[in-house]
Amino acid sequence: MAMNPRLGALCTLSLVFACSAGPASPPSPAPPTPPSPSQESRMPTQPETLDAQLLRECVEMGGSVALVKVREVKASNTGTRGSRIRVEFELEQVLRGSLPRQSGFWSFGGAATIQVGQRLMAAFRPAPADAKDVALLAFVPVAEGQTAEAIRAHEAALPAKGR
User: Using an 8 Å Cβ cutoff, are 77 and 84 in contact?
Assistant: First the structure.
């Protein structure tokens, strides 16, 4: 079988271009693998803390700083500008001030920000003696297993007692 001269020239040119392209570039290194969940759990992380200035002002006005555990979350006016949530909590430890053992507060925002069973380090305004609700200044979530670290960090940020 005879070969078409044009086809032969085309094959020759293809072979020349393929060989003149040079060696193939080395394969790029594999991207670094993210740490596994077991490795991440071994990495120490600092708990989130409330702002030191806010803590000082809270104490100066006679407010309270406490570790609380969320018992119930109820949404109100969902989907409106006035949407807010009612959070019922159980007091776990008071760092400063005083609070009822079980109380609650209103907070603006969606119910997804606070969940039942979650621990919060919170700062509250002084509440009247007969009030069931307390007025929230600010809160930060406390991760599971970091309760002691969160308490130590907040106690260190609080002004010394008696000042």
Answer: yes
85/151 Cα distance (integer angstroms): 25
Specify the DSSP class assigned to residue 161. T
Query: Which of 131, 140, 141, 67 lies closest to 97 in space, CA to CA?
Result: 67
At 49-80, the pLDDT tens digits run: 999 999 999 999 999 999 999 999 998 888 88
Give the C-alpha separation, 138 to 130, whole Å.
Answer: 22
Cα distances from 65 to residues 46, 72, 80, in angstroms, run 19, 20, 31
| Stated pTM of the model | 0.67
For the chain, what are the domain ranges? Answer: 52-157
Extract the tokens encoding 77: 């006016």
CATH class of 52-157: mainly beta
More confident residue, 100 or 15: 100
Which pLDDT tens digit goes with each residue over 31-48? 556 555 555 555 557 788
